[in-house]
Write a structure and sequence with these properties.
162 residues; two-stranded antiparallel sheet; mainly beta; binds zinc ion; 40% strand; five-stranded antiparallel sheet
Length: 162
Amino acid sequence: MDPGTGAVRTTARVNARTWSATRVKMIDPYPLQNGETNSMHVFYEHVAQGRLTTTRCKGCNTLSWPPRRFCGECCSDQFDWVDLPNHGRIHGYSIQEAGVPAGFRKPLIFAVVEVAGLRMFTTLVEADPQAVGVGKPVRFTPMAVTDGPGGAKRFLPAFTLA
Ligand SMILES: [Zn+2]
């Protein structure tokens, strides 16, 4: 296996013929950020730049969340990337005290945040759980996660109390 790409060379003998193929081992925990395999990687490039964006359909002008490759209203695959405000309000939340995955601080605070009329499931970072509440203002704060293949910095969209 190539540790840089996760590619694995597979060779097998089937019906007296030998075939081989290269397959990508699915070890990337954030495959949506991979520009080689996913067209929505642009969203994560924006997140890394500190921009919260989504797609707006060129056919019917529908603003989508999450960003979409195809419009659910008119089936168009033509869209523009648009910037959203970097602030919103907590619509609902949940605090996870136990079973937090390795590498994440305890407790984890999950929230549905409303931004420009769109409701986003997200994580609240650097927030005092006692201060979290429905209706509280929050601001967009990209959360660094594991580097990608080749050492590329990666981020997930997150929010913190404003
Ligand atoms: Zn549309």
